[in-house]
Amino acid sequence: MTNEEYQTIIQLLTEILQREQSNTYRIILYLVPNVGIVFGTTLLFFLFQWWHKQKMALIQSGQYKPWSFDIRLYSFFVGLLLTFTGFALSFVFILVLGRSMAMLGGLIPFAIGLGLLTFYKKSK
Fold it and tell me: What does the alpha-carbon distance between residue 14 and residue 43 come to, in Å, rounded to a whole number?
């Protein structure tokens, strides 16, 4: 963050404080998502670093066993989940809201699920 950006943020915060002296809680409400993002990112960084060190230690000690991942079975499972979830969402949205853009909330997972099931069927 550059000094100009920092000064702009400080200026905006002071203007908010001057306008609404009784509503100082809003600054905390504005900062909560940012603090959550910073802490979440930090947590994920250290989690991935720990996993990497653990894997490297297992490799050095000769105890590392690579696990196999069956993409075909995974695509079948996720395809079924998305297809039926998308179908149910589409059905409910059509009943409640009629033909509207809300149907995309169900049609998109339905289409992705059908695509994954097609991948499962074609990749024998």
Answer: 31
On the 0-12 / 13-18 / 19+ scale of CB atoms within 10 A, 21 is exposed
Dist. CA 53–CA 64, nearest whole Å:
12
Q: Tell me if 116 sits within 8 A of 78, measured CB to CB.
A: yes
Angstrom distances, CA of residue 84 to CA of 9, 73, 88, 114: 47, 17, 6, 10
pLDDT (tens, 9 = 90+) of the chain, 124 residues, equals 788 888 898 888 888 777 766 566 777 888 899 999 999 999 999 999 999 999 999 999 999 988 888 888 999 999 999 999 999 999 998 888 888 888 888 889 999 999 999 999 998 7
